[in-house]
Amino acid sequence: MEKVYKFNSGLILYYTNNKINNATSIEISFDCGSRCDGDIPGLSHFCEHMFFTGTDKMSKLEVSKRYFDFIKVNAYTSTDDIVFTGNIMTSKLPQYLDAVYDMICNSEFSSKAVEDEKKIVIQEIVQSKDNYARKAEELLQTDLYKLDYYAKSVLGSIESVSKITNKDVKKYVKKYFVNNNCYISICSPLSFNKVKSVIKNFFEQKMPVNNLKPLPYREEKLLEGTEVNIHKADIEKSFLAIVFKSMHDGLDVKRKVALNIICNIIEDISDGLTKELRIDNGLIYSMGASYMVSKLNSFICVRTEISQENIKPCIDVIIDYIKKVAIEGFSKEQFNKELEIENYYWQTKIDSPNRMRENLMSYRFYQKFITDKTIHNIVKDIDLEYINEVAKELFTNPMVQVFVYGNIDKKDVYTLSQIQKKIKK
C-alpha cells in the first residue's frame, strides 16, 4: 500500500508499509543541493556538514553520537537535494525526527564552527582531486544537460569554501530548510495514520515555512551535439562516452525497463568488444552502459575507460556494434539470458525496505508509484520483439553526443560529423 500526503505546511509525505520486519527506512530530503549554491560553489555541501557541528544545547561530539547511534544512518548532498537517510528501529522514529529537526533548526553555525569545518571540507576536496572518474561524470552531466551547476563540483573548490561565512550558512538554511521544500519518504510497519501523526508532532509542526517556490526538477532537453566534447587533463586514462538519444512523448515505464535490459546486454558483451581493442599495446580498462528516460526523451550512454591510442578504434567498435543492433536486433539467446537475470533480480528485490523507500522517492519524478512488483510484472510481459523495437528506434539515425576526458588532442578523436557519417553508412 502506497500513499502520498501533503501537509498544510507544504511538506510532502510518501508512505508504504513494511510487512517483513520491524525496521523503518526513511529519507528526509530538501529540494536544493549544489544547483542552489549560487556564487559560492560547495555551499550546499558545506551546510550539510554544519548540521553536525553542535546545537545550542549539544556539542559537536554529542550531536554526531546522537545521530549515528540510530543503527544505519547518513546524510549527503547531491546536485538536486540534501538528504538525511536512515534505517532505524521503528520505536525510535520520534527520536530520529527530533534529532534531524534539532540539527536543522537549533545548530548555532558559529564563526568558529565554520572555520573548523572548512579544514575538514578542504581536506575532502584535496582527497577528491585524484578521483578522475568522478570528475569525468560531472563533465559528462554538464555536456548532456548544458546546465551550469553540473560544471561545478558538489564539493566546491578550496577557494570558494575558504570564503564561506556563518552568515552564508544561516541564509542558505533559512531559505531552503523549510516544510514547503521538504519531502519525506518512509517505509514502516506503522500504519499510514500513525506515521503521519508522528511526523506531524515531532517534525512538521516544528519546522518553519516561507514563500519559497518549488524548483524545477531538471531540464529534460537533451541538446544535439555539434562537436565532440573534449576535456583535456593530464591523466593516464582517458574517459570516452558515446550517447545515443531519441525524443518521444510521455513517460513509459515499460520503455524504462527495456532500456535497462538493453544496457545490461551491452555490458554482458562488453568483454568481447574490449578484446578487439587490445592492439598496439593499448588497453581498454572497462566498458559499460547506462540509460535515462524522461517524459520527453531517452538515451543510452556507452562508457569506457581507455588508453589514448585506442579512442578511435573504440569508437569504431562501438558504432559497428550499434549499427548491427539497429539492423538485426538482439538475438533470442542474448534476450533470454538477460530476461532470466532481470526476472531473478526483481524477484529478489521485492519487499526490501530500502528498495521501497527508493521507489517512493521516484514518485517525485514519475508522478506515480513504480514499485518493484510493478517492474517485475512488466519484465515478465516484455518480449524480444519489443526490446528490438526500442533498440532500433534508439540506434537508427540517433542524435549523438560524444564526450572525451583525458590527455588528448582533437587529432586523437573523430569529429562528430565523421562519427555521424559512420553511423549512417
In brief, what are we looking at here?
With 425 residues, the chain is α+β, with helices and mostly antiparallel strands.
Q: Can you give keywords for this protein?
A:
2 domains, 425 residues, 46% helix, Cytochrome Bc1 Complex, Chain A, domain 1, 6-stranded mixed beta sheet, single chain, alpha+beta, globular
Write the layout of secondary structure elements.
Elements: E1 2-6, E2 12-17, E3 23-30, H1 43-50, H2 60-68, E4 72-77, E5 82-89, H3 93-105, H4 111-128, H5 132-145, H6 158-162, H7 166-176, E6 182-188, H8 192-204, E7 229-232, E8 238-247, H9 253-275, E9 284-293, E10 297-306, H10 311-328, H11 332-349, H12 353-361, H13 363-366, H14 372-381, H15 384-395, E11 399-406, H16 416-424
Parallel strand pairs: 2-6, 7-11
Antiparallel strand pairs: 1-2, 3-5, 3-6, 4-5, 8-10, 8-11, 9-10
Helix pairs in contact: 1-7, 3-8, 9-15, 10-15, 10-16, 11-14
| Estimated structural class | alpha+beta
Biggest beta-sheet profile: 6 strands, mixed
As for the CATH topology of the largest domain, it is: Cytochrome Bc1 Complex, Chain A, domain 1
The parts where pLDDT drops under 50 for at least 5 residues are none
Portion of residues within helices: 40-55%
For the record, the CATH architecture of the largest domain stands as: 2-Layer Sandwich
**CATH C-level class of the largest domain:** Alpha Beta
The CATH superfamily title of the largest domain: Metalloenzyme, LuxS/M16 peptidase-like
Counting DSSP E segments of at least 2 residues, the number of strands comes to: 11
> In angstroms, what is the radius of gyration?
24 Å
What is the succession of H and E elements?
Answer: EEEHHEEHHHHHEHEEHEEHHHHHHEH
Q: Strand sequence of the main sheet, in spatial order?
A: 1-2-6-3-5-4
* Count of all domains: 2
Provide the β-strand percentage band: 15-25%
Shape: globular
Average pLDDT rating? 87
CA(first)-CA(last) distance: 52 Å
